[in-house]
């Protein structure tokens, strides 16, 4: 009987030690999960801020498209002005030679403006496409963050359940 009692005491002590170790491990896991959850939350907040900034950048790029369109219209009007000036200079004959030089410079200015606007338009479209790509990536990242947050909540619930079970084991071991 003494052997059996000693054996029960040993089993009780073993269960208590295992329970204690389990509780400590679960506490460490909970702390780690909480740290990860804080990180996921910070990432989600940063992601939301980046989404706002890319939306604002997209709006600015669209405004730039409007400005480019206006400048293109001015360039077209300048081309017509140069053409009209050339026609009037030709009509004026010798007395319009000075005006012909001005007309030629107006056409050069118009062509240079047109080339510059085309380059600017290309750059703005590239930037706009890049912003859209970033926006898509941020939306994907946001979805992943939400999924990770949900998974962390499930893990936290499971760890809490295990922790309750470990405490219950400790209580049972104390009663032995």
TrEMBL record:
The UniProt keywords, alphabetically, are: Transducer
Q: Which GO terms describe its cellular component?
A: membrane
Q: Name one Pfam family in it.
A: MCPsignal
Q: Which InterPro entries match?
A: MCPsignal_dom
UniProt record, GO biological process: signal transduction
What residue stretches are annotated with the Methyl-accepting transducer domain? 1-176
- Name this protein carries in UniProt: Methyl-accepting chemotaxis sensory transducer
Species this chain originates from:
Clostridium butyricum E4 str. BoNT E BL5262
């Amino acid at each position: 009987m003494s052997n059996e009692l000693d054996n029960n005491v040993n089993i009780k002590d073993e269960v208590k030690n295992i329970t204690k170790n389990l509780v400590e491990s679960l506490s460490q896991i909970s702390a780690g999960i909480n740290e990860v959850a804080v990180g996921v939350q910070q990432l989600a907040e940063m992601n939301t801020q980046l989404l706002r900034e890319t939306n604002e950048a997209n709006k600015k790029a669209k405004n730039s498209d409007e400005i480019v369109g206006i400048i293109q219209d001015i360039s077209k009007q300048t081309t017509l002005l140069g053409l009209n000036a050339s026609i009037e200079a030709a009509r004026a004959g010798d007395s319009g030679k000075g005006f012909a030089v001005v007309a030629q410079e107006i056409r050069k200015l118009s062509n240079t403006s047109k080339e510059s606007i085309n380059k600017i338009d290309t750059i703005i479209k590239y930037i706009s496409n890049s912003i859209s790509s970033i926006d898509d990536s941020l939306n994907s990242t946001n979805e992943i963050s939400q999924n990770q947050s949900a998974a962390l909540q499930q893990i936290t619930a499971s760890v809490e359940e295990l922790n309750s079970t470990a405490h219950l084991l400790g209580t049972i071991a104390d009663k032995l």
